[in-house]
Amino acid sequence: MGAYILRRLLLVIPTLLGMMIINFTLTQFVPGGPIEQIIAQVQGQGDVTAGFTGGGGDAADMLGSNDSAYAGARGLPPEFIEKLEKEFGFDKPPLERFGLMLWNYVRLDFGDSYFRSVSVIDLVLEKMPVSITLGLWSTLIAYLVSIPLGIRKAVKDGSSFDNWTSGVIIVAYAIPGFLVAILLLVLFAGGSYWQFFPLRGLTSDNFNQLSWAGKALDYLWHIALPVLASTISAFATLTLLTKNSFLDEIKKQYVMTARAKGQSERRVLYGHVFRNAMLIVIAGFPGVFISVFFAGSLIIETIFSLDGLGRLGFEAAVARDYPVIFGTLFIFGLMQLVVGIVSDLMYVFVDPRIDFEKREG
């Protein structure tokens, strides 16, 4: 097992490198980089470039015209553009910039945001609790509901209970999470009907003044609708996965043998079937968490005005804040690769009979 883990860890390096190369290359062809963002702001604020040119003189003489390669830069002084390029590091060739970025990442230096004047690490640490809250609660609730329901559906396979619950699950899976979020807001957050839950945020304005119990209740009150909206798709997938796993195990010979020996149905189900059937479900917990963590955070956080990683990534992409984009991409990619290894270890922990080294051989 040690050799297998070592091989997986060594594969992390080329995987991250390939991911960063592809995304860095794509950004070289995407219009509207950070310099264009600054130029657009400058052009919309009138003669704000006087500070860069020393002031004085007629504005038309001062700005003049140039043949800058940046969209919207015509009329801005070349000194201003050169200063922006130097500030953002675009005065260097792309290959040199990429190599410098990788060297900084090796030293865990992800740089500072272009527009927030805050380090990328500080931004990620600041926003991460919100996204972890959504991902962790959604995953836990999905497991707590899906496992008992999936087992019940497997035992009652083909019954009316199995049929109507399957219908509900399929409908829930087919509805996008953002539509569920909007529906919950309209119904229960002061939209057109009731106002049982707050419209936005993770805590109330007077959160620090509340007692310990009051803080817990306030937190649960705010997180209820976002968690419910982000749980729908994971809940449907896990339920059907649990059901199919149990059905596959129930049909095997050892189950028939246990029943022939006179063991009760409960003993057969939870003493023999459960461990084997739950292998893929339990071992997949890290992967499900990461899936919910990344897939649902952007839209859910935006709709419920939660200041988490999904919203940070969206705003960084719109503003072309490259340090935040590449830094979070590197961190999240590393997290996903490590979680993949943890998932394999979970398989071995749940069932020691699994040997990945023999399977690879």
Automatic annotation (TrEMBL):
Write the record's keywords in alphabetical order, separated by commas. Answer: Cell inner membrane, Cell membrane, Membrane, Transmembrane, Transmembrane helix, Transport
Domain called ABC transmembrane type-1: residue spans: 128-347
List, in alphabetical order, the GO biological process terms annotated in this UniProt record: microcin transport; transmembrane transport
Where does the sequence pass through the membrane? Answer: 9-26, 132-151, 163-189, 219-242, 277-304, 324-350
**Membrane topology per record:** Multi-pass membrane protein
Q: Does the keyword Flavoprotein apply?
A: no
UniProt-listed Pfam families? BPD_transp_1 (PF00528)
- Mainly localized where? membrane
Gene3D superfamilies the UniProt entry points to: MetI-like
Q: Where in the cell is it found?
A: Cell inner membrane; Cell membrane
What GO cellular component term, any one, is given? plasma membrane
Record family assignment: Belongs to the binding-protein-dependent transport system permease family.
NCBIfam families with a match to the protein in the record: PRK15133.1
Q: What is this protein called?
A: Microcin C ABC transporter permease YejB
Q: Which organism is it from?
A: Pseudooceanicola sediminis
